[in-house]
Amino acid sequence: MTPDGRVLGILPPVAAATPWWQEVEPVVRAVRDRFGVDATILRLLGTERDRPHGGAVTYLAEVAELAEVARPVPAEPWAGALDEQPLRLPYARPGGPAADLAWARQVLDRHGLRLSGPPEQVRSWNLSSIWRIPIEGQVAWLKVVPPFFAHEGRLLERLAGGPVPRLLGQGDGRVLLAEIPGEDLYEAGPAQLRDMVALLAGLQRSWQGRTEELLALGLPDWRAPALEAAIAAVMERTADELSAAERVILARFLSGLPRRFADIAACGLDDTLVHGDFHPGNCRGEGSAITLLDWGDSGVGHPLLDQPAFLTRIPDEAVGPVRAHWHERWRAAVPGSDPDRAADLLAPIAAARQAVIYQGFLDRIEPAERVYHRTDPAEWLSRTAAILGG
Q: Is beta strand 120-125 parallel, antiparallel or unpaired with respect to 128-135?
């Protein structure tokens, strides 16, 4: 498709060196290497598989006139039809990525920074559009998100000076971030894992008693009343996808939620800032200099809602020591609190919250992109039942 919306045709298949549908950088590279065409991926049109990832995928891409390309391009007529969707994101439309990049250049100009090369598209899907922008001696990162993640930029402004990315500019669901030295810490060792926990717990402690400020920034509410209602709603909508035994367990869980939340409150840890997707891969740095990334999933709720996702993504032998360190940090911060019991009581709630999150994605993204998340609500409720049954 050209920037004015005219369909030019479909290219023959190319092999991309990634199974992940949203990681479009290898797709762009493969098309350029084979056909000499600079493409910008707009959105997913169809997938061979009914769930992620791998297999044959068809994307809609924006390109210049193929007649302007140096060598012939074997584009075939395309028999499909492009629809219009009210939930379509601006960066999934022709001209959308160009508008995002133009905004980023304006921000760079205000900082006196100049591009040293063409921007490179890294990711595009229903949750984000990410570009790497080379500038003089460094790299800036452009991240564009849907409205339900747009609080990230406002939150980063409030967290400035803390262990978060340095914000060059933000607005309308866009953030431009400065380069972060080091590497992504998927393979972090024990000391770094403890440092990550300490950084998050320190931030969370500083925001206890200030939840209204966070809600005013647009963060979602995962405190007891709101989360209880949301869990009930997703359970009702997903009931047909669960087994009879799971429905029985979850109904008992739902009826006991008010008492469970009261018991959690009695453990002494007040609601605060929740990262929402806290794990080593969302941390970057070197040594003890660590930055906590990706605050789009953040919300307001119990601080230990962040624990299960982290503990399931570290080596088994590290889980016990990291959990003990986590709880000791909170006992020191809030004398008399009982993080051990709070974490046990929260485990099924944290899993059910994930079902709420993914149902929210499905409700707010266009149909072609729902394949990413279609089975997630039921799968997370099944995990909730398994935790309770265990």
A: antiparallel
Q: Is 389 exposed, middle or buried (0-12, 13-18, 19+ CB in 10 A)?
A: exposed
User: Where a domain ends, among 132, 150, 178?
Assistant: 178
Please report, in angstroms and rounded to a whole number, the separation of the first and last CA atoms in the chain. Answer: 52
214 membership: H or E segment, kind and range = helix 211-216
Burial (CB count within 10 angstroms: exposed 0-12, middle 13-18, buried 19+), residue 304: buried
Q: pTM of the prediction?
A: 0.94
Q: Do residues 138 and 189 share a domain?
A: no
Q: Report residue 206 as tokens.
A: 């500083």
Do 324 and 366 share a structural domain? yes
265 and 385 inside one domain:
yes
**Segments in the chain below pLDDT 50:** none
Residue 215 sits in the same domain as residue 308: yes
Residue with tokens 């992504």: 184
Q: How far is CA 279 from CA 122, 203, 260, in A?
A: 21, 15, 26
What is residue 275's three-state secondary structure?
coil
Whole-angstrom Cα distance, residue 345 to residue 13?
A: 50
Structure tokens that stand for 113 in this block: 């920074």
Please indicate, yes or no, if residue 362 is contained in any of the structural domains: yes
Domain span at 246: 183-389
110: amino acid identity, one letter: R
Q: Convert the pLDDT of each residue in 94-120 to its tens digit.
A: 999 999 999 999 999 999 999 999 999
Backbone φ and ψ for 276, nearest 5 degrees, come out as 100, -25
DSSP states along 45-96: EEESSSSSSSS-EEEEEE-S-GGGSSS---PBP--------TT--GGGSTTH
Query: What is the per-residue burial (b if ≥16 Cβ within 10 Å, else e) of 204-217?
Result: bbebeeebeebeeb
